Amino acid sequence: MKINAPKGTVAKLRWSILFAAGLALALSVPALAAPKPDMKPPTVIAYDYHSVAQTSDGLIWYWGGVADVIKGKPTPRDNTPEHMKNLKDVAEIQAFRDNHIILKKDGTVWEWGPSWKVNSVQIFEGTTEFPEPKRIEELSNIVKIAGGEVYSAIDKDGAVWVWHPLVNYNGYHKLENINDATDISWDGKAGVHILREDGTVWKWTAYGEDIKFVLADKQFRTHKFTENNSYAVRNIEMNPSYSAIKIEGLKNVVALSKGQGKQNFAIAKDGTVWGWGKNFRGNLGLPEETEIIDQPVKITGLSDVSSIATNGLSTLILKKDGSLMVLGNNIGDYPVEFKKGHEIRRIVGIEKVISVSLGDQHAVAITEDGNLWAWGKNNAGQLGDASFKDSLTPILVKKMQ
């Protein structure tokens, strides 16, 4: 199937919506207190310009990327974490852009996210709202979810469900050859990685895509394109199969990386790390001249790793001792010339981390004492210190008790 779209249209639309309907929400997490021994520790997720914190008792706090428009002027809200009172009993929450999927403790899955309400067309006023979540009726008995352009979920029997609402949506499907999944992760493109009980990693891809830029003909002259007046043509071929394919070279894996980056990692039982995918500015841990790795390779210098978070520019590595390392760009920094991205650097000023996530150019983390930290870009209130000022080092957003 061929889809024609002017180059930059999606990006501009996204920014216009972000700026008009959102640019800074709410940020003050009142008591993410350390959990009781029988409770799940608090966690954080981030995507683009917002962040979410989940407390041990299943409550959700949201901040960043939200504003109202008053008399035609975008007006940021107080950017401290806002308690989402309509979200309760949450077991897990995942984000893709401003859309979220929520796994509740009863195994049901829900869709949720901010929406834009027009209050006045004449003077252009509107409000960002957070409506009630909507249940996905086709999914039940779910134990784990993963967000992304391709969504996925694991049910109590270890089966994997996949769906992709943005490109030729065709419903919810169960993979035919997986019945023992323990972890899932979006690959940053059109695929899902699946970890099985035997420590092997498998992949299912929703569609193949080839993008070419061609010169516009007369019917596109009213649009704005690149300097040579070209537009993007997306050639998309859907995958008719719902069977996953094994990724060779990986064994004894216990966890997969999470995030929106096109660099992917698998953490082995002994704490070593294997990586593959795109190596932008060294964020895969390989010298910058290596652009893409198709098959997993061992990443030198990484050991005792607990989890990994990615975005397009950076990779954050959480070690078992609670320390944080970074590959690629430093969080929130975009140097023009930077040849040391493949070198592992420690994030100073934060220790004993138990949960970490990356947005577009910011990071959020929770330490074992329940404190919330953030650093990087803060143009949309995604850090939560009510200043809208960037910070290249972690700042304590809220002192938890």
Task: Walk me through what this model shows.
- This protein has 401 residues and is mainly beta.
- The protein is built from 1 helix and 36 strands.
- A hairpin with a 4-residue loop joins strand 9 (99-104) and strand 10.
- It starts with a strand and ends with a strand.
- Residues 1-38 have low confidence and may be disordered.
Kindly report how far apart the N and C termini lie: 55 Å
What's the shape? Answer: globular
Strand content: 35-45%
The spatial strand order of the largest sheet comes to 25-29-30-31-32
Per-chain topology:
Elements (H helix, E strand, L loop, with lengths): L1 E4 L3 H13 L21 E5 L2 E5 L5 E4 L3 E4 L2 E4 L5 E2 L6 E7 L2 E6 L4 E4 L2 E6 L4 E5 L4 E2 L6 E5 L4 E5 L4 E4 L9 E2 L6 E6 L4 E6 L4 E5 L1 E9 L14 E9 L6 E2 L6 E4 L1 E2 L3 E6 L4 E6 L13 E7 L6 E6 L3 E6 L4 E5 L16 E2 L6 E6 L3 E6 L4 E5 L14 E8 L3
Parallel strand pairs: 25-29
Antiparallel strand pairs: 1-22, 2-3, 3-4, 4-7, 5-6, 8-9, 9-10, 10-13, 11-12, 14-15, 15-16, 16-17, 18-19, 19-20, 20-23, 21-22, 24-26, 26-27, 27-28, 29-30, 30-31, 31-32, 33-34, 34-35, 35-36
